[in-house]
Write the structure tokens for this entry.
Amino acid sequence: MVGNYFYNEVLRGFQDRLKDSDFELMVFTAQNLQDVDPQLSRAVKSGLSAGALLLSTPVNEKTYSLVKNSRSPVVVVDTRHPDIDTVSVDNEYGGHLATSFLISKGYRKIGLVMASKESQPAAARYRGYVRAITESGMMVDDQLVYVAEGDYHHGYSETSGYQGAKKLLEASPDIDAIFATSDVQAFGAMHAVRESGLNIPDDVAVIGYDDLSVSRHLGLTTVRQPMFEMGRTAVERLLSHIDRHTMHVSETVFYPDLVERATTKTL
């Protein structure tokens, strides 16, 4: 699925590794989850491709059946499946890292702007958020958790971030921090906070997840995941399967790190 900065960074990694090979990249896009299986079927059944990279897409029973019955090797990126070669990030660790960081800075009323429940990375980041809150001795407040509506880009959009922050601020006016499960959502959340007449970070802190290049210019504190490296590694795995005519299942997991900038402070 292609549609925001995260996907573009991973695609850069795909292309960087492929430029040294005899293969070219064909991109099949899906605007929502219903489009994924038809596009994957085109990619692996048409005979047009030597292999396929499935990016940021939940692997349901039908999707797995397409992968299993394909004559072309498939590597899944940013999603995990026990029976498919995968390249991913430990997102639960990343969600815990972001939330624990906010708690260490003195924030106590921490809202979560989450992408779609169907997104494995978002669900894992939510689990990390919950674990950090409970480990600190606080209670998880459902009023402080917003889940994106609809499946457009799995909820990873500025619009969902804006809507989520608006709803959190209305439900809990004393909220002092917002963790968004992606940088693009954090951009929307920042807009909503400032539109409400509040200052970042003096009134409300904001932390994202990705570390996109634009995030550095906006001074966004965020959790950095190695998007470019994920793309390169996925292609490396795929080329290995193509060369060896095998589909050995393995899992490559990267660990994110935190980048502190201007949207958070010590209370």
Notes: The chain has a mean pLDDT of 90. The domain at 5-89+225-255 is CATH 3.40.50.2300 (Rossmann fold). Residues 231 and 261 are 26 Å apart (CA to CA).
